[in-house]
Amino acid sequence: MRILLAFLLIVGLSFYVMASSLSRMVGDFLFEERITNDRAQLEILAERLSPSLRGRDMDALRHEMLLSGSEMGGRVLLLDENGKVQLDTHGTLNGQLFPVSEVKSILVLGNQVDYGIRDVQTGEKLDTDSMLFLSRNQGQWESYCAAAVVHESSIIGVLLLISPVDAMMDRLYLLQDQMMVIFLLVAAAALLCSGAFSHWFTAPITGLRRGIQRMSKGDFSARVSEKGSGEMRELARAFNSMSEKLETLDQSRNSFVSNASHELKTPLATMKIMIESLIYQPDMDRDLRTEFMTDINKEIDRLSTIVSDLLTLVQMDSQSVKLTRENVSIAALCKETAHRLEPIAQQKNQRILLTLGDPCDLYADKSKLNQVIYNLMENAVKYTQQGGQIKVTLVKEGRDALLTVTDNGPGIAKENLPHIFDRFYRVDKARSRESGGTGLGLSIVHQLVLLHGGAIRVESEEGKGTSFIVEIPLHQG
């Protein structure tokens, strides 16, 4: 609003200065034109009257003055070298002295012509510049134009033309009126255009400001309209993108806190029930007591695993995890992991098949890569039915190592695939808890692969198994 007012003030002042300058220029032109015309006519008349005045031919003088005065539209006075009126076309000043400055300028100072504007009532002489700023009702004005009557290089008299300037002033007032109307029209147009421009220009900014205010109050669902100029549209898009990411992050955080609380609360509640049973049943059977204590120990292990996984994720989120790099063979890690999981696979009558086409040596963090491989292969063994098969394939593709862990288990529903790497996300919550899963393993795997500059994706179809594909650059930056 302040910018708009400042703009209007600048436009108004600029137009006022322009209008004043134009009015002054037109006024000066009209006065100059009037003065030039009066002087030219009066000088011609003075030259014609010079012989008659020298010869005192009053009849000829009177006839010529009456005729010329009628043509020039004013009152003509003929004064002698002493400033006394010899002839007045109105006949009221004959024989009287007429000591006005225009006459004195010729008789005393020796000028050939002089011009002035005077008040009809008071006779006060005004500067022509001030005429432009007089009120319309501020008196009436007449022009006094005096010219020397010369005979043989001597001034023998003065010819004075007194004529009204009302017509000229009316033209000036009309010009001022027109300029005022134009000024008001331009001001109104500028106001409308400025208002429209201001609304068009500031509407996106206002919307963006309101969106920021909503976001500052915790409302991350705030979105703004992507309108305006190219830069404003890009800014609105950037804001909406940021707002969407913050909303997703906020939802993820809330979900994470809720899930973490639930995951921590579940083993605590189980342990509390068991411990209370031990407290309030001191004569409990020895075998049952041992079973309770064993279950409590398992819940403590599970709680410890959850806390450990949470700490790992927190460290990764804060980017405080450092990679301890050394020469690593991914093929060797796959063999080692398969050897460790073989007893579990044999219990379920499963087979782990390794197809290692390249050792895929690289300079990376051995323990973290081992955690990635172990987690993926353990999940395959854990969630594949009795008699299932787990295939581990390692090949080199260009500058990357491509590791694929495939099982022929129950698979994952299509709607669950986009969330498979979310924290605490479980496809089958009941089975996952029974198997001791925390719902954080794949999230950790995903973060560890990203730390090595790689990528991981999942392909699955219900009833046909699941494949996890990991791509890791062999030349680590």
SSE order and pairing:
Blueprint: H1 2-54, H2 58-72, E1 75-80, E2 85-88, H3 101-107, E3 113-119, E4 125-126, E5 141-151, E6 154-164, H4 166-216, H5 230-280, H6 286-317, E7 325-329, H7 330-347, E8 351-356, E9 361-365, H8 366-383, E10 389-397, E11 400-407, H9 429-434, H10 441-451, E12 455-461, E13 465-473
Parallel strand pairs: 8-10
Antiparallel strand pairs: 1-2, 1-6, 3-4, 3-5, 5-6, 7-9, 10-11, 11-13, 12-13
Helix pairs in contact: 1-2, 1-4, 4-5, 5-6, 6-10, 7-8, 8-10
Residue runs with pLDDT of under 50 for 5 or more positions:
430-434
- How large is the radius of gyration? 54 Å
The SSE order reads HHEEHEEEEHHHEHEEHEEHHEE
Total E-strand runs: 13
How would a crystallographer describe the biggest sheet? 6 strands, antiparallel
Distance between the termini: 54 Å
Widest sheet, order of strands: 2-1-6-5-3-4
CATH superfamily of the largest domain: PAS domain
Q: Per CATH, which architecture of the largest domain?
A: 2-Layer Sandwich
Number of helices: 10
Estimated structural class: alpha+beta
Q: Quickly count the domains.
A: 3
- Name the overall outline: rod-shaped
> What portion of residues belong to β-strands?
15-25%
Broad CATH class of the largest domain: Alpha Beta
